[in-house]
Fold Precorrin-6y C5,15-methyltransferase (Decarboxylating) subunit CbiE.
Amino acid sequence: MFLAHVIGIGPHGPTKDGHQALSGVKVAFGAKRHSPWLPPGLLLKPLMPLDQSIKEIKERLSRESVAVLASGDPLFFGIGRRLLKEIEAPRLSFYPAVSSIQLAFAAIKEPWDRAHFISLHGRSHELLRKLASLPQTKVAVLTSSGKDPFRMAQRLCSAGLEDLKLWVLEDLGTPSQRITEARARSLPPGPYSDLNLVIIDWSPLPRPRLGLRTEEFSYQRGLITKDEVRAIILAKLRLPAQGILWDIGAGSGSVAIEALGISPQLRVYAIEKDPLQIKYLQENIRRYQAFQIEALFENAETAIKRLPSPDRVFIGGSGGKLREIIQTTLARLNPGGRIVISAVTLDTLSQADEILRGEGLRPEIISVQINRTDSGTKPRIFRAENVIFIISCEKTDETPTSGLS
């Protein structure tokens, strides 16, 4: 059986086994920078464009073995993952070399057994979201060009993270190796080699996983979900470790932000049509580094038709479009997903219950009455707050929907 030998190239070339595998093939696919490590007479073909080269690799495997060259470890954010999707595993053989991550942490003299890794190849906009889901740690970021380090620093600064320490490591293991250490706010614009990676000394702001107080948010007076009600809403959502949450009528974003304290791997879409509320929402996202939240300034009934299908949905406001929002949400909601709706008026409660039952669901309804002591009065008394109704239900595979998707 002919094999595709996937050979990692380190700063000093392939390993001994990698050299031996190269000696048994006539054709290798890789980059020009790998050519010094090839034996005489071996034909080097470009690996890019990838779709075209994989097609040729498959065709050649019917009659001969080939080599595929990669930097470092091919199975660490490398070509190995794609090859395993395209070619059956028995036809592949891997020869890892020292990875750029190992070289980078050795260069800055830091252990990396607790480090996290982010690949920004084609996904630079996801940097903040991925950072926000991590605990305090060193984060190695695999970039795609020499422009990425400075762009990354600018993105961090725009999010209020200008004091984070960065290391930019270029051409690791070569005579032109260079290390630049700086705070995000003072990182030089470059130029940097295209062969670079960035290490971020990530340190998120400490905050409780649950239990932020109302006064710890920026919000429009009278328009925020109170602490205790928020806790019940989150309990009724039964948040998964990962998935997508829609927060419809998000207001200041207090529910979305507290949800991330419980499940930081969530991806949250917070939809709000009021310009003042969206301002508070954006302030709170920045304050709590809740970059997993994408704030959407638009009507909910429009936004939810194009967003990724959710696993959980909280509806805190509907702008008079409750029926349309619920029906579209149910059509988009993944099986096993949950909807939680808060209502202040009996009219909204009755309408939500009628719509959900009409869609074949059996919602649970609870009323929440908070009485709070007023420390400024003598004698001390309890002051009653408005009753809040919380409606929750779950979609199953059998749930019929008449959604407007």
Residues 4-98 form a domain with the Cobalt-precorrin-4 Transmethylase; domain 1 fold (CATH 3.40.1010.10). Residues 47 and 110 are 33 Å apart (CA to CA). The chain has a mean pLDDT of 93. The first strand starts at residue 4 and ends at 9.
